[in-house]
Write a structure and sequence with these properties.
This protein has about 300 residues and is of the alpha/beta class. It folds into three domains: about 35 residues; about 60 residues, Ubiquitin-like (UB roll) (Roll), CATH 3.10.20.310; about 150 residues, Rossmann fold, CATH 3.40.50. Helix content is about 30%, strand content about 25%. The strands form three sheets. Strands 6-5-4-7-10-11-12-13-14 form a nine-stranded mixed β-sheet, covered by helices on one side. Strands 1-3-2 form a three-stranded mixed β-sheet. Helix 1 packs across helix 2.
Length: about 300
């Protein structure tokens, strides 16, 4: 007689512990998302089945647990890296600075030898470095894992500005953008043209020269002279005085006579003045000049001499 074999096979016992829980959650998720998985295909359309609340709650739990686990794992990894020696600052370089001391730049940036660079706020450090009056632009670059480069671009003075009056005012540096950025300290270079006059009332507002003002005309003259013209470079200009009625009045370093530039067409009058000075120097008549009026007429200039008969 053949041995009896039961056709009934009991269900396998469900797993216990964390692995069993994950398996049951995944099984519920699979049935929720793929309701036809594991079914035999029939000739008709698949008929869906209703899901009970337990299956739906398992899916919600899974969707909440997985991001939480990823977040916890990310914080764990970040904490381990932040406490390691891999990203500690070991090399620091500073370039482009001439007027601002290297040590002061490093202190202002907030960098310290041996500090961990993870989480260091580069933009905030750059903003702090730009607080120095001489610093026009500051770039801080981290060469991972442990090197930092600070690149500084300083402002270049174009002229000096006397604020507070011609006799008792203080001198400040002015850059080519028309910005008054730093006071002149003892021992610093003062070999620049000087702007004088009622600057605050004629176009200098909150340390910035405003466009289309008499002071802006002086700035335009300085920019042209700074290009290095052989006859009239910036080094040949001693003072630029701004007058409310007459506009810009220029004085040269080696000549005491005034040059009246007016308030309009500064560029055209500058190059016209260069031609006049070139002719006077070539003919050796510069010593007898009393004044030059570039604003005499629209297309004419007046050169007045000390001896009218010359």
């Amino acid at each position: 007689m053949a041995p009896y074999t039961s056709k009934y096979s009991p269900n396998k016992s469900r797993g216990k512990g964390l692995s069993g829980l994950v398996g049951r959650l995944f099984s519920g998720f699979r049935k929720r998302v793929f309701p036809t998985a594991g079914r035999k295909k029939t000739g008709g359309f698949p008929v869906g089945r209703k899901h009970d609340g337990r299956t739906l709650s398992r899916v919600h739990i899974l969707l909440l647990v997985v991001p939480l686990l990823v977040t916890v794992f990310g914080w764990f990894v970040y904490g381990r890296l932040a406490s390691s020696d891999i990203f500690r600052l070991t090399e620091l370089s500073v370039s482009g600075n001439h007027m601002v001391n290297r040590r002061r730049l490093i202190e202002k940036s907030g960098l310290r030898q041996g500090m961990n660079l993870l989480g260091f706020d580069v933009k905030a450090a750059q903003a702090r470095l730009r607080q120095f009056a001489w610093v026009e632009q500051a770039n801080l670059h981290i060469a991972w894992p442990s090197k930092v480069e600070i690149r500084i671009r300083e402002r270049h003075p174009l002229a000096l500005v006397r604020l507070g009056g011609k006799k008792k005012g203080s001198l400040f540096y002015l850059d080519r953008n028309g910005y008054v950025f730093a006071p002149v300290l003892p021992g610093q270079d003062v070999d620049f043209p000087t702007l004088t006059g009622d600057l605050s009332g004629l176009g200098l507002d909150k340390k910035q020269i405003q466009p289309d003002t008499p002071v802006a005309g002086a700035l335009a003259f300085l920019r042209l002279a700074a290009r290095g013209n052989a006859i009239l470079p910036a080094q040949a200009v001693s003072e630029l005085h701004i007058d409310a009625a007459q506009g810009l009045i220029v004085y040269l370093v080696d000549r005491p006579f005034p040059i009246y530039m007016g308030r309009e067409n500064i560029r055209i009058r500058y190059y016209r003045l260069v031609k006049i000075l070139e002719r006077l120097y070539r003919k050796k008549k510069i010593a007898g000049i009393k004044e030059i009026q570039m604003n005499y007429m629209e297309n004419r200039a007046l050169v007045a001499t000390v001896d009218p008969g010359r």
